[in-house]
Specification:
374 residues, alpha+beta, Creatine Amidinohydrolase, Chain A, domain 1, Creatine Amidinohydrolase, three-stranded antiparallel sheet, 11 helices, 19 strands, binds zinc ion
């Protein structure tokens, strides 16, 4: 209920005239109600502390979650804090009909998760004159709430991150010259499922040799070389929550340039972690990593941002990137993942998940980052 209350409050300041909000992003619906089905829409009528002149009383003041006939039983079992309506036709059509019936006049929608086509369709389902002013865009308010995790969420994220670390230890036994990258990925993904993961939180990255210079080198049929880096970036989903970590190991003897690049990335990663604490701007954390690589003359090869929030989705707010002014808050879970990529030669990245605590950062992925040559 607390999450719905917070969303109501956020909505009142983002769109003072709205008397309801339509939530269509399935992850947001899950966050707010617990329902995990793939087709859902939540109508949140505004709770108003003091019905005054500008506020009309809605006929049905409770949140309602709309889904379809595949989810009758599941919706009843999972959904909390909202009534359940099983739609006969398109769920959004029924949600619109319900709102009109309940006396809603202005409904806020998440502009980031609503396509132009969907908005057109929604408008068609509102009768007559009301149609033009009925839907009002607002920023992704639920996503904003999701950036700061509660105790239960932190527990789940911690468990997912720990599973990732256990899988990494096992994965080390699989890295050898001549083996295909996808064999390593397949081993990892099978082990993750056997350990209880619902799936991977994104496509597993196993990038070996010159492919390690591809920041998003998904595992391919390429055989791992006798000599060169192997970048392993992967995550599991456990009870809905994602993990995300990267480790880079070296097959055979490394050159001085490879070794130096790895040490610089590691130092940059430590510097960024050291910069994490509540009140610090995300851009400052990014700069902490980037400045180390600048000193090592490698900043031009660090071609992405330093990190991102993780939770029900693999990429959430906040963005840990250059010039980002958003400040960190205790309870946020972010990644710190600097890397350098020298095209055609090699690349290395190190990524941890960090919980922002009152005094700094707690690393949720404590797997070793020491130099590994195998
Ligand atoms: Zn990653
Ligand atoms: Zn990441």
């Amino acid at each position: 209920m607390l999450r719905l209350k917070k969303l109501s409050a956020a909505l009142q300041s983002a769109s003072p005239k709205a008397d309801a909000m339509l939530i269509t992003h399935p992850i947001d619906v899950r966050y707010l109600t617990g329902f995990t089905g793939s087709n859902a829409a939540l109508v949140l009528p505004l709770e108003r502390p003091s019905p005054g002149k500008t506020w009309r009383r809605l006929r049905v003041p409770k949140p309602v979650m709309f889904t379809d006939g595949r989810y009758i039983q599941q919706a009843k079992q999972e959904t909390k804090h909202a009534g359940v309506a099983i739609a006969q036709g398109p769920i959004l059509r029924e949600a619109c009909a319900w709102m009109v019936d309940a006396g809603v006049r202005r409904c806020a929608f998440d502009a980031e998760h609503t396509t132009v086509a969907t908005l057109d369709m929604l408008r068609q389902w509102i009768p007559g004159k009301q149609r033009r002013s009925f839907f009002q865009p607002v920023p992704p308010l639920a996503a904003g709430l999701r950036e700061t995790k509660d105790v239960e969420e932190i527990g789940r994220i911690r468990a997912a991150a720990q599973l990732g670390c256990r899988l990494f230890e096992d994965l080390l036994t699989q890295i050898e010259a001549g083996k295909r990258e996808i064999d390593v990925a397949a081993h990892l993904e099978f082990a993750a499922r056997m350990a209880g993961a619902e799936g991977m939180s994104f496509e597993t990255i196993v990038a070996s040799g010159a492919r390690s210079a591809l920041p998003h080198g998904n595992a391919t049929g390429q055989r791992m070389p006798r000599r060169g880096f192997v970048v392993l970036d992967f995550g599991v989903m456990l009870k809905g929550y994602c993990s995300d970590m990267t480790r880079t190991v070296h097959l055979g003897r490394a050159t001085a340039a490879e070794r130096d690049a790895y040490e610089a990335v590691l130092e940059a990663q430590f510097a960024a972690i050291a910069a994490v604490r509540p009140g610090v701007q995300c851009g400052e954390v990014d700069e902490a990593a980037r400045s180390v690589l600048r000193r090592a003359k490698l900043a031009d090869f660090f071609t992405h941002s330093t990190g991102h929030g993780v939770g029900l989705e693999i990429h959430e707010g906040p963005r840990i990137a250059a010039q980002q002014q958003q400040t960190l808050k205790a309870g946020m879970v972010i990644t710190i993942e600097p890397g350098v990529y020298l095209p055609g030669r090699f690349g290395a990245r190190i990524e941890d998940m960090a919980l922002v605590t009152r005094s700094g950062a707690e690393i949720l992925t404590p797997a070793t980052k020491a130099w590994i040559e195998m």
